[in-house]
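Notebook B, p. 112. Complex prediction, attempt 2.
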Amino acid sequence: MAGDSTVLRLTGVHRAYKEGDHLLEILKGADFELRAGEMVAMVAPSGAGKSTLLHLAGLLERPDEGEVFIADTGCGTLSDAERTARRRNDIGFVYQFHHLLPEFSALENVMIPQMIRGLAKSEAETRARQLLDYLRIGPRAEHRPAELSGGEQQRVAIARAVANAPLVLLADEPTGNLDPETSGYVFEALAALARQSGLSALVATHNHALAERMDRVVTLADGQIVPFTG
Ligand code: ADP
């Protein structure tokens, strides 16, 4: 259930890219708010700026103008080191392609971010096993990514993204690379995990059927984030 506090807020965000000798304006003063425990889908055509928005929200890029708040912290004036720390502690990412470390097992892939954050190996392993069990891939824990199916790889990526209990989960077409049945299953797993743990999520997806199952659906129109009306 959505709470009263805001975990992510974008105010007046502008982002443009140079394309040849003209400027491609992607975001033109976009505002957005994600409340605690809320799951929001973002549906928009390819090239509309979904990834750009997620990169700004995830502190991977800085807006040209405007501000990104994580909880109550305005992140514009933070140093790169402070932004990296906030990203590590407060934000989980799931991408279209899993980006798991190929030479490590599923279990290790979920343990590593926790150990980077300072957790002891045994604690990280306990939490990783719980997450993998919850996502019904416990029996695959010792396998490397190449030995897992696409749906299994994405579930490991989801477990890794939430392993440090982030404030915000950002997902960029997390099921875009999967067949419809697997896509539905992975999405269910993501939603169940988010609801069970009170996680807030912003999920870019092409899949309208999946989007409709979130609390709210937004789209990008003329550089703004607006409610999606179908
Ligand atoms: P979406 O995720 O909705 O497909 P993107 O945010 O990836 O959209 O891209 C929005 C537009 O911005 C596209 O036209 C893309 O080519 C352009 N773009 C994205 N990143 C860059 C970049 N680093 N440099 C130049 N153009 C970019």
